[in-house]
Amino acid sequence: MTEIPVEADWDNAPGVLEGARELELTPAMCNLPYWFEHVAGSMLRRLSDGTVTAAGPTQAVLRPGPMREALIDEFTFRTLAEDKATRALSFLVFHAPDRDCLEFYATQLVDEARHARAFRDHLLLVGVPDEEISAAVARTAASSGAAVLDPLEEFGLGVLRDRQDFYGGVLVLTVLVEGILAPAAELSERKWKVLDPSAALVERGANMDEIRHLAVGSAVVRQYLTQHPQARAGLVELVREGRRLWEELPMQEVLYRRESLFQEGLAEHGHLLGDYEIWPGRRLVDSGIEERMEAAERWSRETQDARLKYMLLDEAL
After folding, report:
1. Which of 143, 175, 295, 149 minimizes the C-alpha distance to 241?
2. 225 near 316, Cβ under 8 Å?
3. How many CB atoms lie under 10 A from the CB of residue 76?
4. What is the pLDDT of residues 22-63, one digit of tens each?
5. CATH number of the domain bearing residue 227
6. Number of structural domains the chain divides into
7. Considering the domain boundaries, does residue 106 fall inside one?
8. Which of 60, 160, 184, 232 could join 91 in a cystine, given CB atoms 3.0 to 4.6 angstroms apart?
């Protein structure tokens, strides 16, 4: 039996924070044969055959209340974000400069579409009727989606669709999108682990994919700049432009509202958590809104900085 790569192993894959900063992968290593064997054939098969399972949602998210609202708010936002990522990736596939990149980004496109379905399907699992999910996603699209995701999408499409800049597009996805959102997903996985283990499993699966996406995207840019150092200044400016945009977006307001709902839910359902720790030495039930947001922001910054250094883009720090 072929050995399972650590990043595709449910039992041994690192968390987002470790994997996204340290793992080294290339498009040639993560091509179509890799995806069919280790993602579809191993990682996803273990989900479908029941080898990897999690307990179902607790009453904290099954009953009406702020905890349930926090889950619905987050998973509709993630559904929308993954949908947008799927569509944007079609341009990376189209403009891929070689076979390895074409195959890898084709698999990433499928991964993001899978994630969108997984987040949506989980809402069905917690009892949200299908027609209500569509309405909830539409509300998210009109609120936090319009405020945060639409400007990010337009920025990315400006690079991918309008400029037809493959390497700039890879950089935007790696640093501005996944480099920022993946650490927040790590926080989410930890938050739901006891209150809704099945939601944490959805996050875990998506996070395992995102580690691979971040590592390969970083390798693509690093190899490009090694061969074309004259392109560094343009990519540095692209990072700075993207970070300026991000600072103008009301993502902190979106997260604060979500964490406020979660905090209300903790007051009601904290007894379910016992001594469970969101990170070593800190019980989830004792954590606060700003504390969790600050942790996610710090993780995001550290992850971005590590990836930028690896991509030879230290000047953008």
Report:
1. 175
2. no
3. 26
4. 889 999 999 999 999 999 999 999 988 888 989 999 999 999
5. 1.10.620.20
6. 1
7. yes
8. 160
